[in-house]
Amino acid sequence: MTRPAIRAAPDDPLTEYLRTNPPAAPGDRGEALVQVRREPSRFASSYRAEVVTVELASGDQVRLFLKDFGTSSFPKDDAAARRERELHVYRDLLPTMGLGTARYHGSLWDHDDQRFWLLLEFLGGSAVSSCPLEAWIAAAGWVGRLHGTRHCASRLEDSPLLIRHDETHLRHRAELARHDVARFGPPLRARLERVLRSYERMLDALIDDSPCLVHGGYRPENVQLVPAPGGGCRVCPLDWEMAAIGSPLHDLAILLDLDAYQKNEVGRVLTEQRDAMLAEREAQRAAREQSDAASTEERPPRDEMRARREQTREAVFGKLQNILSEQQMTKLKILLEQPQGGRGPGGGQF
Prior knowledge:
This protein is of the alpha+beta class. The chain contains eleven helices and twelve strands. It starts with 5 loop residues before the first strand and ends in a 14-residue tail after the last helix.
């Protein structure tokens, strides 16, 4: 049943805010506000949310998405840090990154009244989780571009709000897992310990990567696919509460929907392959330095180098097939084949 829209009262805090800060319609420079209508959003998840329709004096209407951090359907750890972090990402980081995310339209933050309202562009798209495989390809390409964006690196490092996926954080998460699983008895605890035995090798891969902005919850249901006016679609991830500085492997694992065992095993395989490649390159470099003919030595033919890369790729995929489901393998291959101009879970790592 569709609930009717509610016309906001003139003294409503949201109306007063929008009257002072009217959102601009496409092509407008900002028009006077005529009225505001509010209705519950069907896209609400743990937090209450509304769709706000703003009518401007020009006759244009602008639809906004209001996320209410003051109301949650279940308790969240460190709720204050979560809301401050998401506000920071939408207000301070994403607008300069050119990734097509939902536009930030302002916020109403009142600690006395416990009012924490985030105003964003209303998207009204479809979650990738409910879309065909092509949507996963678009989501994979987008997260690769996110991880390849380096021009705001200094602001990331200076931000006190982003989570740091450093060694301390990752070890703490492992201890939290031990604490939580202990309540469910020895069998589950033993299973977790088997997973954590390979955790040390995974830590090296996660910590050594050049840090980038990580979404932190890049699940298919948190990624909206929105039709673009000129054709095609925009990829718009939502829920940046757990945004972090860390390894792109974190978002990769979540998008692939890996369980804890699979995350560790995939990390182990990729780390072993990376170490083998580095060792081979070092051995080749040392051999060239010791050879009197180093100055005249030619690189292997391009076809030979391509064949070696393909052979390595197939060897890694052969190992991963014993860990991942057929659907997960398909998604992984798509991720690794995405062309992009930076680091991330694509760009031909193998």
